[in-house]
From TrEMBL:
InterPro entries: DNA_recomb/repair_RecN, P-loop_NTPase, RecF/RecN/SMC_N. This is DNA repair protein RecN. GO terms for biological process: DNA recombination; DNA repair; SOS response. NCBIfam families: PRK10869.1 (NF008121), recN (TIGR00634). GO terms for cellular component: bacterial nucleoid. The keyword Coiled coil applies. Belongs to the RecN family. One of its GO terms (molecular function) is ATP binding.
């Protein structure tokens, strides 16, 4: 429940700090005093849209904080734990700061949080019913939400929504595949031609580099043969002079010199090695020359394969040595496109299954709604008859729509009907109910549906507009009864409702020539009598109005 609300520099409030209580609290005050200002501030604290106008004139910022007790509120505990915002002392403190420039910051248990997180948490703590709630009651979506809230079948709604979203997702995937089917077939034919061509050429990984090397060797075969023979001739085969003969001569001369000076021994060793290396080189050159085959037909084959590879590479706009990788990628893409038709058929089957699951879940939801509609019709009828509509008849019509009307919340169309006179067939609210009647029906629905939700704090902001007298007293009793089960705060201008509160807050406005301020404070018993007397008789309070006020309190 809401335990404390602290407001600093909000609108016409400079500072107020209110400790709140359980049960039903009524909030009253003179017209224009700002009775709804605490609720507006709380709404802002819980994530309502903020701008610079929220800041009190002359102040740098508006600072609003709300402290909630979390006893028996496991859902909030779980949410806080999931977001690493653990509650100390079984409490949750929410704070919102709005600067004079319109910027805002949000905090949960002292930690800065995005505004979106604040909006997620708020409905678990407080449910606010505004003074214009009866106007939204005319909308079919709101009527469906109220029925579902009364029924409390949230898990079934989630199941229906999940099956609907799966069906829609599969439908989008099918639509995408069908739209691209012609383009996909054209692409598949091109890929098939390209893959067949590359299959026929069958270039292996690394083969192009080998072809280049073999082609270069065969193309220059005669030059290689002539060069190798000439090198071998210079090394060892020239009868007049060759490299091996010259090295032997030098070696013999250095051997003779080393006999005189041993320092030349390393030179002898080097020359010996050089002689051996030259002889081996000569042998390798001769062997290489013998291995060279001048094969024009093989050269022609290599030339043709090299030209074909270059032509394919230009066609696919890749380097020739990348053709094998290109071939692999095209094969994979072709397989993917070839399987697209199979995928389309599989998706269509999945969608049929998903649709049947959605229909089954929607049918179950429809039956749940029918049961809840009958119960809500009976209870609202009883409630509005107590609210000075003695002949009133309220009914909830729940019609299952055709298949093409599927929606995330099921296939039902919900409509609230009312009859205010005997013999009159129930008709839609917008066609029958007057403003006062609509207000009473709305209040009955809010009380009945609020009783079904887990939110520990319910706030009603002048929802009793349009009613008075005996009806107002009954409204007060309804709200007081609700306040025995959860925390109820009610802004009201009716003394009959105000008297039903377990306690009462008063909002007073003070003005001078320079500034206006609003204050919120608790009323003691004598003060409550004076305030109720003012609400009954206006500015002039008499013993008669005080007596009436005291009687209202005693009756409540």
């Amino acid at each position: 429940m809401l335990q404390q609300l602290t407001i600093n520099n909000f609108a016409i409030v400079s500072h107020t700090d209110v400790e709140l209580k359980s049960g039903m609290t009524t909030i009253t005050g003179e017209t224009g005093a700002g009775k709804s200002i605490a609720i507006d501030a709380l709404g802002l604290c819980l994530g309502d849209r903020a701008d610079a106008s929220a800041v009190r004139p002359g102040a740098k910022k508006s600072d609003i904080s709300a402290r909630f007790g979390l006893t028996k509120n496991a859902a909030v505990h779980e949410w806080l734990e999931q977001h690493d915002l653990d509650a100390d002392d079984n409490e949750c403190i929410i704070r919102r700061v709005i600067s004079a420039e319109g910027r805002s910051r949000s905090y949960i248990n002292g930690q800065p949080v995005p505004l979106q997180q604040l909006k997620q948490l708020a409905p678990m703590l407080v449910s606010i019913h505004g003074q214009h709630a009866h106007q939204t009651l005319l909308k079919s979506d709101q009527q469906r939400l109220l029925l579902d809230r009364f029924a409390g079948h949230h898990s079934k709604l989630d199941t229906v929504a999940a099956s609907y979203q799966l069906w829609k997702k599969l439908g989008k995937q099918i639509h995408t595949l069908q739209e691209s089917q012609l383009q996909r077939e054209s692409r598949r034919q091109l890929l098939q031609y390209q893959v067949d061509e590359l299959d026929q050429f069958a270039l292996e990984e690394g083969e192009y580099e080998q072809i280049e090397q073999d082609h270069k060797r065969l193309f220059n075969g005669q030059s290689l043969l002539d060069g190798a023979n000439n090198a071998a001739h210079l090394l060892s085969e020239d009868e007049q002079v060759n490299a091996c003969q010259l090295v032997r001569q030098v070696l013999n001369q250095v051997i003779e010199l080393s006999e005189t000076d041993q320092k030349l021994a390393p030179v002898v060793s080097l020359l010996n090695d050089a002689q051996i290396q030259l002889e081996e080189a000569s042998h390798e050159l001769n062997a290489y020359s013998e291995s060279i085959e001048l094969d024009p037909s093989q050269l022609q084959q290599l030339d043709e394969r090299l030209s074909a590879a270059l032509q394919l590479a230009r066609k696919h706009q890749v380097n020739p040595n990348h053709l094998p990788q290109q071939h692999k990628e095209l094969v994979e893409e072709l397989a993917e496109l070839t399987g697209a038709d199979d995928q389309l058929e599989a998706l269509q089957q999945e969608q049929q299954i998903a649709w049947q699951e959605y229909c089954d879940e929607s049918d179950v939801l429809h039956q749940l709604r029918l049961t809840a509609a009958a119960q809500l019709s009976e209870q609202v009828t009883l409630a509005i008859r107590e609210l000075n509509m003695p002949k009133g008849l309220f009914s909830v019509e729940c019609v299952s729509l055709k298949n093409d009307k599927a929606a995330v919340h099921g296939r039902d169309e919900i409509q609230f009907l009312v009859s205010t006179n005997p013999g009159q067939q129930p008709q839609p609210l917008s066609k029958v109910a007057s403003g006062g009647e609509l207000s009473r029906i709305s209040l009955a629905l809010q009380v009945l549906t609020s009783n079904q939700q887990a939110t520990p704090t319910l706030i009603f902001d002048e929802v009793d507009v349009g009613i008075s007298g005996q009806t107002a007293a009954i409204v007060g009793k309804l709200l007081r009864k609700l306040g025995e089960e959860c925390q109820v705060m009610c802004v009201t201008h009716l003394p009959q409702v105000a008297a039903c509160g377990h306690q009462q807050l008063n909002v007073a406005k003070f003005s001078d020539d320079e500034m206006t301020d609003t204050n919120i404070h608790w009323l003691a018993d004598d003060q409550r009598i004076n305030e109720l007397a003012r609400m009954l008789g206006g500015d002039t309070i008499t013993e008669h109005t005080r007596a009436n006020a005291q009687e209202l309190l005693l009756t409540a």
